[in-house]
Amino acid sequence: MKVLLLHNRYQLAGGEDGVVQAERALLEANSHQVSLLEVSNHEIKSVWDQLTTAVSAIYSYSAKQQVSNEITKFRPDIVHVHNFFPLLSPSIYDACLEQNIPIVQTLHNYRLACPKALLFRDNKVCEDCVSELVQWQSILYGCYRDSRIQSSVVAAMNTWHRLRRTWQERVDAYIVFTQFQKEKMVQSGLPADKFYIKPNFVFSANFINEICQQNNYLLFVGRLSEEKGVSLLIEAYLQNNFSIPLKIVGNGPLKEKLQQKVKNTASENIIEFLGFQNQPTVMSLMHHAQFLIFPSVWYEGFPLTVAEAFACSLPIIAPKLGSMAEIVEDGVTGLHFEAGNSADLGAKIEWAINHSETMITMGKNARQVYENNYSPEANYKQLIEIYKQTINNK
Fold it and tell me: Is 0.85 surpassed by the pTM of this model?
């Protein structure tokens, strides 16, 4: 099978970019021919670039021609779109339609239902625009990049393509990560019969089968931003005066603020900020941690951090919120706490520390879930079946 992948990279590398590269490697490892047409937001440099991008985000004739040329040259059996925003734009669907090539779109976030893509505003979940034809509240609050002008562009794109029925008629299949995500996107107007649920995957590290001597620390891995809930985690630590070390992996806009919050407290030498770490280092840290704390306060999609943790037999304390309530099974692969509640998070951390044997069993369960659902072998079977059904239904 010949597969054309389309992806618009963000300026700050994220999980989506890793998923694209991993799926490309997975397909090539199984003898498929793959072409990756990728553009980057690094190309947006000047004010003029920003203006032209704003217009072309709604419909880019140049991107349509670029994709059309690639189809003519490569002759794929299927096109798999990961991210089209903002440089590729939904015009790429017309390029595929005109040459009768089936299209699969992975929805890595909630962009089609929310201009900010997170369903999150003012540090809490927000669904104001999900079912709206004109997402005017996102413009009013400047949800996208704190800009009413830029929010207007994204809202205009969503409104125009809802009216044009782009999402309903020009995309043959959608991939989402959880049942929860599917329900939200169907609520936004996408056709329920075009959805497939397929989680992300990670390649298992070489040391996974080694006997692990656990170190005495807990772990957070993620972007240091409001929606990831790391402030909540630190608050829980300060409230309970936990003596077990907490290692925080990641960078983000809240890093300095969080470091200041910890400074001159009893937790100053307990909470360690490690900054960005490459994946092998992260996997090694996971392999030796007691458990992962994932305190996110937004709905999430399917964080690679979760698949990595499960691959390392690492149980997770996660909020009973959105996709995370579905991905982490309470009492089986980890523990749930009430989203946004630092006291409940602290209570669950204390319980987990005091029931280490039970947590080890949950970690073993997590590893089994990884092998069944998040391993390359399992994921390949799911992906190729989606491709075959989409081609057959065209």
Answer: yes
